[in-house]
Design goal:
- 73% of the residues lie in helices and 0% in strands.
- By secondary structure, the chain is mainly α.
- It has 5 domains: 111 residues, Serine Threonine Protein Phosphatase 5, Tetratricopeptide repeat, CATH 1.25.40.10; 195 residues, Alpha Horseshoe (Leucine-rich Repeat Variant), CATH 1.25.10.10; 134 residues, no CATH class; 161 residues, Leucine-rich Repeat Variant, CATH 1.25.10.10; 101 residues, no CATH class.
- It starts with a helix and ends with a helix.
């Protein structure tokens, strides 16, 4: 055997050991190393592939398992293990006919193979039933198509038939049957003349379902209707139709890239390369439609949202391609569009368009990973602004200012670099000082966005406060509210530092009162409420304003109602106000030594206001929770901005810090949103959402808090909190929540194992911190109800030995959990019973348990002893060589009252088992 083969065999053996211990991720890595070590397709290579397939099956990664089985079978075509594992993968993927083929082959080759017989019988029944159903399905499909496409039929019948087609398309077999008919072309024709919106939208959804997770069917659909068709149906002012079309286009992209409509999904590199032309064509269509003058505002927003949703994936590389194809200039056009300029070639926009365009520009800039790309991005921005600035008319200057505002709200670094150029700030101040109301309005907006950094705020305070005060007296309400927000932002430039007051004492309260009036009485223009909320978002850094606002029920209700509209342009104002009210913003850690050093150096030291003490913060959080703020957060959570998602997570976590509000968060739909927030966003945002979920999982029954599939979805974010970067409190809360989820059912325990939770939870059992060790031990105790965990304890390790040691822990709750764990594993495994004696402390531990004043501990102790005695004669003899028999006899003779009945009973049964082995005898037999 050559050196490479020897090394590969070593990796395989290590992989087998990891597999036995349930560490499937590690096993996969080791089998992969074995595969990579040898180049030729030898018999050993076949073994490595089928072993890795077994690990993939444990992880429920059936596609990867199938691929490895097929590679193994290419080397050894009739290998029974590879065929068996391929059969398992195919059945899990619901490819029953192919699974039945493999099961039949195994049975033909080895009729005495007992494990395959029940599988063959089950698959035979499924295949027979599917053949019968397909025949019925074909008849149903034909009758439904006749009704749907016959315009003379009644609307009710046609709606029912179209809904039935949608249900059929969601079924794998139904979709395969439908794609073989002309249904796609017929739906395309129908939607050209269909006037009923319900049928129209359901027809779009049918197309989407046919494409879902299936590359082959998607190609057939595109061949039949073409990519431009999707853009045609997207162009509508009906929100439901636009949402359905947007979802349909995302489904097409997912089919070509291997993604799913889940927060943590990623494209598959091989699939992306294979479908490169189709994916690039889709991107080109989206880019060239961004500034299409003919489409509706809702359609434009949907197109930009599709770009935002997929721009971060390295495998797609959309950010770089979008820059190359002129996407930046097109987005800048959208960002500079104004509803006031109405003419034939004006773009249709919504109140959210500029905000969404700013988010998209920010995402593109974030994906410019090296200097050359960032220079190209800046070049595109400069070219757009240069063209506008060289044009002498006022409209161009206004558009530049509006575009700059978008950059300041999106890629801030880009916006600030442009703002710092000679003449730009002067141009904005000149516009603000004119008598033209439109110029005043856009200049105010730009000044508000520009005052995001302290140095910029100081410059504007020195140059622009008088102009803003003048504009605040304007007769135009739109100008007046924007000037007010500008003053609010400048007035709050000191942040939460109570010692810094940019304006005179009491000014912030007066400004807050003005914002409140606009919030409650917006007049004819509802846009005014949005600006009032933004003004409050700056002022609520002041603790006095927080206290005044929290006692103002009508104002709080107005904020909640504003958020429920779902308008993305109100998001910043509302959510930042809520973050400030909860004090959920990130606070810098105060180190006493640094304060003393700052005093010595005569540096400014920030002061916290007395109204920001914990008691006041708790009162504000409870008030917000009782005013249904969760419904506002749910409405605002649809945003694609990661920074905004982080702010929403912070408010949710603040609400969940109060046990009384956790039920309200669950009842108002907060869990679904929190799971999405925990999977996607900034690292800090995901941590905040995960901690909120953990807090809910601690105090509420997880079956109620996380019904159905959500209990499994919440496991990954909880396990991600078991990380050194997370605080001890986050670790503890995640362990407690996982402990509760682990006792639900086997599916939950298996998901914890698949997500790598076992090793992380075990790590915390060795922690010196009492609470962390206790929570981890309790969690592990619940996990031991799984057979796979028992096998890990049976492996060549010291897990049982350590469990015995933990029974002697000073913390009663930790010892209780360890004793429960020991009782479970000894009851399930003879090997674990034998491994108890590996510990030098085993007798002390049993003494401690059997003589414990707590009855619950005594009960666990007698269960452990009974399990060991029942397991094997040799183990029973070893136990009876000590004083354990005398202790058991004493316990069996205790009066069975005060809850001791079970202890007496189990102690008696343990003595009977020892008697059966012949290890002890009754006294009368000795006589």
């Amino acid at each position: 055997m050559c050196a490479n083969e020897t090394e590969a065999e070593k990796y395989k053996e290590e992989g087998n050991e990891s597999f036995k211990n349930g560490n499937w991720e590690q096993a996969i890595k080791l089998y992969t190393k074995a595969i990579d070590t040898i180049a030729s397709e030898t018999r050993n290579m076949s073994i490595y592939y089928k072993n890795r397939a077994a690990a993939y099956l444990k992880q429920e990664n059936y596609d990867a398992a199938l691929e490895d089985c097929e590679r193994s079978l290419q080397i050894i075509p009739s290998d029974p293990k590879a065929l068996f594992r391929r059969c398992q993968a195919l059945e899990a993927l619901k490819r029953y006919e192919e699974a039945y083929r493999d099961a039949t082959q195994i049975f033909k080759d080895d009729p005495a193979n007992k494990p395959i017989q029940p599988i063959l019988a089950r698959l035979h029944q499924i295949v027979q039933e599917r053949a019968r159903q397909n025949a019925q399905m074909s008849n149903k499909l034909e009758s439904m198509m006749k009704i749907v496409f016959e315009l003379s039929e009644s609307i009710d019948k046609r709606e029912t038939a179209m809904n039935n087609l949608l249900v059929l398309a969601r079924d794998q077999a139904g979709a395969e049957l439908m794609i073989k008919t002309t249904i796609v072309q017929q739906i395309k024709k129908l939607l050209k003349v269909e006037k009923n919106k319900e049928i129209f939208i359901t027809g779009i959804r049918v197309i989407g379902e046919l494409c879902k997770h299936n590359e082959k069917r998607t190609k057939i659909v595109l061949k039949d209707i073409g990519l431009p068709w999707f853009l045609e149906i997207l162009d509508s002012n009906d929100e439901k139709q636009v949402n359905a079309a947007e979802h349909c286009m995302q489904t097409v992209l997912n089919a070509f890239s291997g993604m799913e409509n889940k927060p943590d999904t990623k494209p598959k590199k091989e699939l992306v390369e294979k479908n490169k032309n189709n994916i690039d064509t889709l991107l080109s269509c989206l880019v060239y439609s961004v500034n299409n003058r003919a489409i509706s505002g809702l359609a434009r927003d949907a197109i930009i949202e599709l770009l935002i949703r997929n721009i971060n994936y390295d495998q797609l590389n959309w950010a770089e391609k979008l820059v190359e194809q002129g996407g930046v200039e097109r987005l800048m056009e959208c960002a500079s569009e104004l509803e006031e300029y109405k003419y034939e070639s004006a773009m249709n926009i919504t109140p959210s368009t500029r905000t969404i365009a700013a988010v998209c520009l920010s995402r593109i800039y974030d994906n410019m990973y090296y200097d050359k790309l960032r220079e190209t991005f800046m070049e595109k921005i400069n070219n757009f602004l240069k063209d506008k600035l060289l044009t002498p008319d006022i409209e161009s200057k206004v558009r530049v200012t509006v575009a700059l505002t978008a950059l300041l709200r999106g890629p801030l670094d880009v916006g600030n670099s442009i703002l710092g150029r000679e003449g730009i700030m002067e141009m904005i101040l000149v516009m603000a000082n004119t008598e033209d109301e439109l110029q005043q309005k856009v200049a105010c907006e730009c000044l508000i966005a520009a005052a995001s950094k302290a140095d910029k705020a100081k410059a504007i305070i020195s140059q622009g406060v008088d102009i803003l005060k003048k504009l605040y007296k304007s007769k135009n309400e739109n100008v007046r509210i924007r000037a007010l927000v500008g003053l609010c932002k400048l007035g709050s430039s000191g942040g939460s530092d109570a010692s810094l007051k940019p304006f005179a004492e009491g000014s912030t309260l007066k400004l807050a009162e003005a914002c409140r009036r606009y919030l409650l009485h917006p007049g004819k223009d509802s846009d005014v409420r949005k600006w009032a909320a933004e003004g409050l978002s700056y002022l609520t850094l002041d603790a006095e304003v927080k206290e005044k606002l929290i006692e103002d029920k009508p104002a709080l209700q107005a904020l909640v109602e504003l958020a429920k509209t779902g308008d993305q342009s109100v998001l910043f104002g509302v959510i930042t106000t809520l973050v400030n009210l909860c004090n959920a913003y990130e606070k810098q850690e105060v180190i006493p030594e640094m304060i003393e050093l700052a005093k010595f150096a005569k540096q400014h030291i920030p002061e916290e206001h007395e109204l920001d003490d914990p008691d006041f913060v708790t009162k504000r959080i409870l008030t917000l929770g009782h005013n249904n703020v969760t419904t506002a957060l749910v409405s605002l959570s649809k945003t694609e901005s990661n920074n905004s998602r982080e702010l929403i997570s912070r408010v949710f976590n603040a609400l969940c810090s109060e046990p009384d509000l956790r039920g309200t968060v669950v009842a108002q739909g907060g869990v679904k949103v929190l799971i999405a927030l925990a999977h996607k966003g900034t690292d800090k945002g995901k941590r905040q959402a995960a901690q909120a979920l953990a807090r809910i999982g601690i105090t509420m029954n997880p079956e109620v808090a996380f019904p159905g599939q959500r209990a499994l979805e919440v496991i990954r974010p909880l396990i991600s909190s078991l990380h050194p970067d997370c605080s001890g409190l986050e670790n503890f809360e995640a362990l407690m929540a996982l402990c509760n989820i682990a006792q639900m059912n086997e599916a939950a325990r298996q998901r914890i194992l698949r997500e790598g939770g076992f090793s992380k939870i075990e790590h915390y059992m060795f922690e010196d911190h009492e609470y962390l060790c206790r929570a981890a031990t309790q969690c592990m105790c619940n996990l031991t109800q799984s057979e796979d965990v028992i096998k890990m304890f049976e492996g060549e390790n010291d897990r049982v030995k350590y469990s015995v040691s933990l029974c002697l822990d000073e913390d009663k709750d930790t010892a209780m959990a360890a004793a429960g764990m020991l009782a479970i594993i000894t009851g399930a495994s003879e090997k674990c019973c034998a491994k108890v004696f590996d510990s030098v402390n085993w007798l002390d531990a049993l003494h401690c348990l059997l003589a414990n004043p707590l009855q619950s501990m005594q009960y666990r102790g007698v269960c452990v002893v009974y399990n060991i005695i029942s397991a094997k004669k040799e183990l029973s003899e070893k136990l009876m060589e000590t004083d354990i028999m005398e202790i058991l006899m004493a316990l069996s003779r205790l009066p069975p009252y005060d809850g001791r009945e079970n202890i007496v009973k189990i102690a008696g049964k343990a003595l009977q088992e020892a008697e059966k082995w012949g290890v002890i005898k009754k006294p009368e037999e000795d006589n």
